[in-house]
Write a structure and sequence with these properties.
- The complex is a heterodimer of chains A (694) and B (202).
- Chain A is 28% helix and 16% strand.
- The two termini of chain A are 50 Å apart.
- Chain A is built from 21 helices and 26 strands.
- A five-stranded mixed sheet of chain B has the order 2-1-3-4-5.
- Classes of the chains: A alpha/beta (694), B alpha/beta (202).
- Chain B: InterPro entries: NuoE-like, NuoE_dom, NuoE_N, Thioredoxin-like_sf.
- Chain B: Its cofactor is [2Fe-2S] cluster.
Chain lengths: 694, 202
């Protein structure tokens, strides 16, 4: 192409788009440029000066991160002059940087340490006192040692640009410049932990992880997060059998390189409140027993009542566990399966497009109008919300909202509170309809709050109707999106963990349990139910934490969390991803599918798989799209024909799930760090008097 | 320069007077729509004037809200510019130039006077009348040494005369500003030496 610019870097010729910075061109040419303030996902600051290069015929070295390329530029990144310039910059940076690497948590993964290796001089010429800076409070997650700060302002730019909560800033100036929040208030963003990764030195470090481990002694396992339905790619660092910390991994189509605070700091919940042995309730008290004893008790209870058994799976269940439980139930002859423990009226048959985030997270970048229906993406999927914000920052992106009007970190036009506004839009009325209609690639996001109500299916129908009316769905663009909040949900729907022929749905199971028609209920990590409605039924809880389900249970079977098993989870887009085992489950705990396989043998209904491969082969028969890991399969178009609507639209407003962001699942509820965050968030809400965040 | 922090004791709240609100709106109108944050410096300055020469924290917040910008951004501006006093100042706020020309002409003796009459830098006298701060060059080197008291320059000072000015101000007397000798503006001492007449003049 002729509009590319030719640049010569150290004798290597590259062609780059006009407007590319010298630094990017150098990377293209394979030359590594040291940097502190530059970050490809943030705006350019150009203040650390570490990326100096020489440009031929230039009067002095230039900061390559901030200088666009010019045609036929000749860049030199390796000469002695460049080395000397960078050494000069490094010497200045080190003047005020403490030499406390041995007691610094960043040690071993510090940009300054690494680059000082290449550009540092071997002795200090600085004779005076180094400056010292008071540490600042930033809340329970981010620890500050501000003397180490080199004022790159990455954290300031992240909070302002990506998180959309401009609460970090630089006060004072020159030597006295200090990074702080307004009057040292705690960070309120759900993405605040990312400033720890961004900080190139040890000024901002993880408070909960402080002084617990060194990076080189940790085993790193690349896996998938399950705290929300985004399926963020993470790295779990373990020492021995203990998870020490969780970090994001880059995946451009999912989480870029960000991670929500819940996903990052939930790890202490993995070690507390754990169920480490099977338990049986005897005379009201739980008693630890052996696996075989627990299985025997269940077998006796089930005898003759097999078809009066129901199973509900929770928000963190993996596809393998649900598949095994589903097979077990069908062998027992029970049709009562339910994976939508929140009561969301998601369609259980056939068309995946009716319940997926069809646009895909990465394609939000291409959308040009957005309608949010009954959802708060900031709480339900913070990383996805950052993606929406990124699109909004790029400009020309009208956003409308039906439901509660909350602060989403970008402005949105509040169109109405409930279904009547949606119905009005679907019938082609209202100014926002013409915005959607005019847009080339409009999209809508419908949340669980709009679906988890009696008229949920009618709401879904109206939304699909609106999508069709406003031409959101075409051959090359699918703007109809369901935003899930539970990591297990899509896989559950994919493999059909829903009422089979003649089976009860959630309401039916709970009503049956109350009335005594449903004798036994299997809970696969389902804790967010109204346990009082389980009546006198016999409850078998398979899960990881001593939460609501375990408190109600008559038999508890200990399972494995997402860091302790290799398992498939499907994110809200329908992207199947596999977690890897980073640690071992505690005590007697086992992977869910193994528990059901073993139980099936005792029940005399042996499941036909002896290893996870056979189980997966069986699963891929049911849901072939799960086989392609990290691939998106086109789900086609959403359609209303398969929906059987029993309850017409009501005019009750869409109320966003009031559940505390930091307490949405049993692991988070067991986490002390999450509890601290929750307290802080509540205090903020009281002082602001909004009651909406958090 | 040293680390500047907001004062420990702060008023409960702050809001512009009616006149200042309409004044502020006029300032904002100078900038394109949506760029109202550009008016941050004039508004903070006006807030400082209204609050008695210093900028309380509630005023920083108030101005940020007035301009629909994050509190933190306003705090950055207020702490960046030393013209914004983050702690209370006296009714007569003395900014004493200590940069080379004034220093050569005896700024140090003026500092001693300040210490004697007022006390240490950044402290307000008990009666609330006076406080002082050493600043960098105020651009009146020709009339060195000099100080700025509130909005006015007091130039060609001697230690004795400066002490008298301070004591007069303390008593609430009116002190004329400008050069404190017979000199007019920045003309040479003893009157003009050149250009005494213009050719063709009578």
């Amino acid at each position: 192409m002729s509009d590319l610019v030719k640049v010569n870097v150290d004798g290597v010729e590259v062609e780059v788009a006009p407007g590319t910075t010298i630094l990017q061109a150098c990377e293209e040419a394979g030359a590594e440029i040291p940097r502190f303030c530059y970050h490809e996902r943030l705006s350019i600051a150009g203040n650390c000066r570490m990326c100096l290069v020489n440009v031929k015929n230039g009067p002095k070295p230039v900061a390559s991160c901030a200088m666009p390329v010019a045609p036929d530029m000749e860049v030199d990144t390796k000469s002695e002059a460049v080395q000397a310039a960078r050494e000069g910059v490094m010497e200045f940076l080190l003047i005020n940087h403490p030499l406390d690497c041995p007691i610094c948590d960043q040690g071993g993964e510090c940009d300054l340490q690494d680059q000082a290796f290449g550009y540092g001089v071997d002795e200090s010429r600085f004779q005076d006192n180094k400056r010292a800076v008071e540490n600042k409070n930033m809340g329970p997650l981010v620890k500050t040692i501000m003397t180490r700060c080199i004022q790159c302002t990455r954290c300031v730019r992240f909070a302002t640009e990506v998180a959309g909560v401009p609460e970090i800033g630089a006060i004072g100036r020159g030597e006295d410049m200090e990074i702080t929040t307004y009057l040292e208030a705690s960070l309120s963003s759900e993405l605040s932990g990312n400033v720890i990764d961004l900080c190139p030195v040890g000024a901002l470090t993880s408070k909960p992880y402080a002084f617990t481990a060194r990076p080189w002694e940790l085993k790193k396992t690349e896996t998938i997060d399950v705290m929300d339905a985004v399926g963020s790619n993470i790295r779990v660092d373990t020492r021995g059998r203990e998870v020490m910390r969780i970090l994001p991994r880059n995946h451009d189509d999912v989480n870029e390189e960000w991670l929500s605070d819940k996903s990052r700091f939930v790890w202490d919940g993995l070690n507390t409140q754990r169920i480490d042995s099977p338990y049986i309730r005897k005379e009201g008290k739980l008693e630890a027993v052996s696996w075989s004893e627990a299985f025997e008790v269940i077998a006796q209870k089930l005898k003759g009542q097999e078809s009066n058994t129901a199973a509900i799976s929770g928000d963190l269940a993996c596809a393998e566990g649900m598949m095994a439980l589903k097979d077990l139930m069908s062998q027992l002859g029970s049709p009562h399966l339910e994976c939508r423990q929140d009561g969301a009226q998601l369609p259980s048959n056939g068309n995946r497009a009716n319940y997926l985030f069809n646009t895909g997270i990465a394609n939000i970048d291409d959308a040009d109008a957005l309608l949010i229906i009954g959802s708060n993406p900031r709480r339900e999927a913070p990383v996805l919300n950052a993606r929406i914000r990124k699109r909004w920052v790029a400009g020309n992106f009208p956003i409308g909202i039906i439901g509660q009007d909350e602060d989403l970190t970008y402005p949105a036009t509040h169109l109405g509170n409930g279904a009547e506004t949606l119905a009005e839009l679907a019938s082609g009325k209202g100014s926002f309809f013409s915005i959607l209609k005019k847009a080339k690639r409009p999209m809508l996001i419908i949340g669980q709050s709009a679906l988890a109500r009696e008229d949920g299916l009618a709401v879904l129908e109206a939304a699909i109707e609106l999508a069709t009316q406003s031409k959101m769905v075409s051959d090359d663009w699918n703007g109809f999106n369901v935003l899930h909040s539970a990591a297990a949900r899509v896989a559950g729907l994919d493999i059909g963990f829903t009422p089979q022929e003649g089976g009860h749905d959630l309401e039916g199971i709970l009503a049956g349990a109350t009335s005594g028609d449903v004798k036994t209920v299997f809970l696969l990590g389902a804790d967010e139910l109204d346990m009082s409605r389980l009546g006198d039924s016999y409850v078998v809880y398979v899960g990881t934490h001593g939460d609501a389900g375990a408190h109600r249970a008559d038999v508890i079977l200990p399972g494995a969390t997402y860091t302790e098993k290799q398992a498939i989870y499907v994110n809200t887009e329908g992207r199947a991803q596999m977690t890897e085992q980073a640690a071992f489950p505690p005590g007697e705990a086992r992977e869910d599918w193994k528990i059901f396989r073993a139980l099936s043998e005792v029940l005399g209904e042996k499941l036909p798989y002896d290893n996870v491969e056979t189980l997966r082969a069986r699963m891929f028969e049911t849901a072939p799209f799960l086989a392609g890991l990290d691939e998106l399969t086109d789900a086609g178009m959403p359609d209303v024909s398969s929906l059987t609507i029993k309850v017409p639209l009501s005019d009750a407003p869409f109320m966003n799930n009031a559940q505390d962001f930091y307490f949405t699942n049993p692991i988070a509820r067991a986490s002390k760090i999450m509890a601290e965050c929750s307290i802080q968030a509540q205090a903020r809400n009281i002082s602001e008097g909004t009651g909406t965040d958090g | 320069m040293s680390v500047r922090r907001v004062a420990e004791n702060q008023p409960d709240d702050f809001s512009f007077t009616k006149e200042n609100i309409s004044w502020a709106k006029k300032q904002i109108a100078k900038y394109p729509k949506g760029r109202q944050a550009s008016a941050i410096i004039p508004l903070l300055w006006q807030a400082q004037k209204q609050a008695g020469g210093w900028l309380p924290e509630p005023a920083i917040r108030y101005v940020a809200e007035f301009l629909d910008m994050p509190n933190m951004r306003a705090m950055e501006v207020a702490t960046f510019y030393t013209m914004f006093n983050l702690e209370p100042v006296g009714e007569h706020f003395v900014q004493l130039c200590g940069t080379t020309p004034c220093w050569l002409r005896g700024a140090d003796t003026l500092k001693d006077v300040c210490r004697k009459v007022i006390g240490e830098q950044n402290t307000v006298t008990d009666d609330g009348k006076l406080s002082w701060l050493e600043v960098e060059c105020l651009g009146a080197c020709v009339n060195a040494p000099m100080v700025q008291i509130n909005d006015d320059f007091y130039e060609d000072l001697t230690a004795e005369w400066f002490e008298k000015i301070l004591l007069d101000l303390k008593r609430g007397e009116n002190v004329p500003s400008g050069p404190q000798t017979s000199r007019k503006a920045s003309e040479p001492e003893g009157g003009r030496t050149v250009l005494k007449s213009i050719e063709g003049d009578a």
